[in-house]
Amino acid sequence: MTDATAAAAAAAPTAHRSLWGDVWRQFRAHRGAMIGAGVFGFILLAVIFGPMLWTIDPGTTNLRARNMPMSWAHPFGTDNVGRDMLAQVLAGGRVSLAVGITAMAVSMLIGAVIGVLAGYFRRLDGPLMRLTELFLALPILPLLLVAILLFRDTLRANFGPEAGVFLLIVVIIGVTSWMQTARIVRGEVQTLKEREFVLAAQSIGTKEGRVITRHILPNVLSPIMVSATIGIAAAIITESTLSFLGLGFPPDFPTWGRLLFDGKDFMTRSPGRVIWPGLFISLTVLSVNFIGDGLRDAMDPRIRGR
Length: 306
Hints:
The radius of gyration is 24 Å and the shape is globular. Helix 3 packs across helix 4. It is an all-alpha fold. The chain has helices at residues 3-11, 19-28, 31-53, 85-120, 122-137, 140-159, 161-175, 179-192, 196-203, 208-216, 221-244, 256-263, 272-298. The model is unreliable at 5-14 (pLDDT under 50).
């Protein structure tokens, strides 16, 4: 190498590497995560924009076209009263994904707050972890069923049949699924508060609230994001289970779980009535889990940046 070439190489600007750039590069190298992101993105776009393209009303009945197989007019067939299954699957996906994402947000908020408080303040660690263990010991599904039976009619009367049930299911799922996030965040916070940059901030008199928001929370985003992907999948499965048991939304308000419940008696005659909503539930949960695996690997400091 000549002196001129060496000088030019030394003068060339080095590529700037950021944390989120490394995370994205590592995530992009995870084939399963990219496939999962593609499938989940397709489902999300389909349920959001699909009803604008497929304009058939999911509630319109046509007794002359009931229990029809797949055709150009009805790609997913029809149900026992002639409603278009494609329109119902798209409409049901909006509700199921809305429940999953909203319940996940409630769960992550509760879990992150309890985890940070338990990990940072030693005097709160014992009571909050005992509370977490209490919730972990509760039988979640029976608790959900009892809560729905107790509060469903009241919320329906105050907020309407759809909004009341949506609020009830979101709150119940969120309140009963924050425990794993809290335990993970607590462990991360206990490690972080002994790091040099946190001790330095405390030594110069930085208030505890600012230490938490400025130094602790940004560094626990990775486990929270990974837990969020798992939380979406768990919330969708829980909502589908409640709807399948007939304790979810009203019969004329489709969700994927409700479609499974309505189609279970017609499996031999019209198998598509359970295949299509079940397939969308499975693909959504599987793709979200793959995204979570990719985020976990991408945010692992032992792997990121190699």
